[in-house]
Amino acid sequence: MASTEHFRxxxxxxxxxxxxxxxxxxxxxxxxxxxAAVSVVISVGIVAALIGEALNFALTVDVGQLVTDGWFPxxxxxxxxxxxxxxxxxSVIGMVIAAPLGLGAAIYLAEYASPRVxxxxxxxxxxxxxxxxxxxGFFALTFISPIVVDRVCPGxxxxxxxxxxxxxxxxxxxxxxxxxxxxxxxxxPNSLREASYGLGAKRQATSLRIVVPAxxxGIVAALIIGLSRAIGETMIVAIAAGAAGGSLFNLNxxxxxxxxxxxxxxxxxGSDQVRGASxxxxxxxxxxxxxxxxxxxxxxxxxxxxRRVRVSY
Length: 313
Hints:
Largest sheet: 3 strands, antiparallel
Distance between the termini: 47 Å
CATH architecture of the largest domain: Orthogonal Bundle
Helix content: over 70%
CATH class of the largest domain: Mainly Alpha
CATH superfamily of the largest domain: MetI-like
Order of helices and strands: HHEEHHHHHHHHEHHH
Number of strands: 3
Structural class: mainly alpha
CATH topology of the largest domain: MetI-like fold
């Protein structure tokens, strides 16, 4: 039997590893910390810049100018309800398209597709998310509006309308919703599926009554992220919605309308024109800050819901 003298007692220093390894880990940790800190500083700087000009607008504008017949900033008409209503209308239309298509694609990829088919379709689905929004904007003008919307809406429909913009936005965010929801469903343990099949349930019942409820936190997060993406979309609504310089208050999706991002885009095209009206330029920052708070609220709601219903397996 070997003597215990041949074994050296390990110290805390030995367990910590080599000095070179510790230096490398500290360096990598510092790099990650710096990246996180820079992102926080940039976000705070953006918000600070928005708040300054937004307060300038809020303190200068007359309350009557915020409740007018429409959004015409170069005429000193800043009806916030016009662009907020248009934004919500386009976003709701987009979610009506994206929610069933995205969740249907996610259920198929997670529960019905074979591993080989999933490996082929999942990258294609994610590539579709990278289609430039300007392409979808022109697609809305050349196909969605004359072929789809004109046949649904009564009477003569303008080429530029909020319905075609909403449908194009829905097509844009469908891959995003599908990808995130599919990842959530794919993460559900197979033991739950096997238990359902063992009790005699079919694949449809297992998918809808077992997998979807188990992945509800990820599914809801996917829908809220898709809604945030729809609210923040710019080029599609700027091209297809139709209200370039301004718009009257309108809740008819078959007619042109104005949304928040498109209002900022059309107003900021040519800074000399923006400077032409006393409050037009500060209104850009006010709308941007309002848009920031809307997306922040959606993200907080999503995070709170996910934390409340998340189940660890």
